[in-house]
Design a protein that fits this description.
89 residues; mainly alpha; 2 domains; two-stranded antiparallel sheet; 3 helices; 2 strands; globular
Length: 89
């Protein structure tokens, strides 16, 4: 099911892929920030699987600490996956 602000929006999602697409669509349609505990994972999925790659800005919750535009761990993982794909060809 998909729930936004503790309200069930959709309770019969047919597959995991559909649920994931609806979740990401909800983050963007309702302008919801990613929870800080899941920020790296969600940003990786956003950039690698959904090809949403904004030049600046992030959906990660704002904190008092300074942040780069893109999490460095996400960039490193994307680069390593890209390098691995090229080597397999």
């Amino acid at each position: 099911m998909l729930s936004v602000d503790r309200n069930i929006v959709h309770d019969n999602i047919p597959s995991f892929v559909s649920a994931l697409c609806m979740m990401f669509g909800s983050y963007y349609c309702f302008n919801i920030h990613y929870p800080s505990d899941l920020a790296s994972t969600l940003e990786f999925l956003q950039r690698c699987f959904f090809s949403i790659n904004p030049e600046k800005g992030t959906k990660v919750e704002k904190t008092n600490t300074s942040r780069l535009h893109i999490n460095p761990r996400v960039l490193i993982l994307i680069q390593e996956l890209s390098d691995h794909e090229w080597r397999d060809l």
